[in-house]
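Before the break, one more example. Copy the sequence into your notebook; we will annotate it together after we see the structure.
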Amino acid sequence: MLGGSVSDKSDEDLFKQMMGDVTPIQVEKRVALKSDKANTETLRERRKAAEQEELSESNELSGEFIEPVDPLDELAFQRPGVQHGVYKKLRLGKYAVEARLDLHRHTVEQARVALDQFIKDCIANDIRCALVTHGKGQDRRPQPALLKSCVAHWLPQLKDVMAFHSAQKHHGGVGATYVMLRKSDRKRQDNLERHQKRH
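Here is what the structure looks like once it is written out:
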């Protein structure tokens, strides 16, 4: 047997002994952390962007190519099933305007969101006839009648819109559009019950 003392120290003890004089290197932060105020601002911006995205996703209106219309064109649309007499009354402005939306000074995206929400609000409140003011955009260059073209393109995409027509002069003429909306489910049920009571 060979002479000499055998160390009782474990590997861990040896490691600690060897690393005894080593001091950790101080690493400077490469990224300066923003203040709480700045972090709050960032969070607010992110939340706003997320809400906007959510709004866009729930918006039924598509953003594809929009056929331009002339500033002085009359807009007209009638879904199958809308009676001729009813449509004529709409065209002549014979129905009371129960709600109005003014799209002046809106960007296309703002107008898209506003129109979609407006129609949903009208249905929720049992409104049958509404007026959307979009202007003629006659002097707008290079895209005259931009919002008017968008409204003409978007309204038929909304299933709750039964018909629409450019307004009479006292309501804005070709710079505004009457919109006829379907009866809400609640209103239809009320009418059905009223009809059954009569018979």
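The domain at 76-189 is CATH 3.30.1370.110 (Ribosomal Protein S8; Chain: A, domain 1). Helices lie at 11-18, 36-58, 84-91, 108-124, 146-154, 185-198. Try to locate both features in your own notes.
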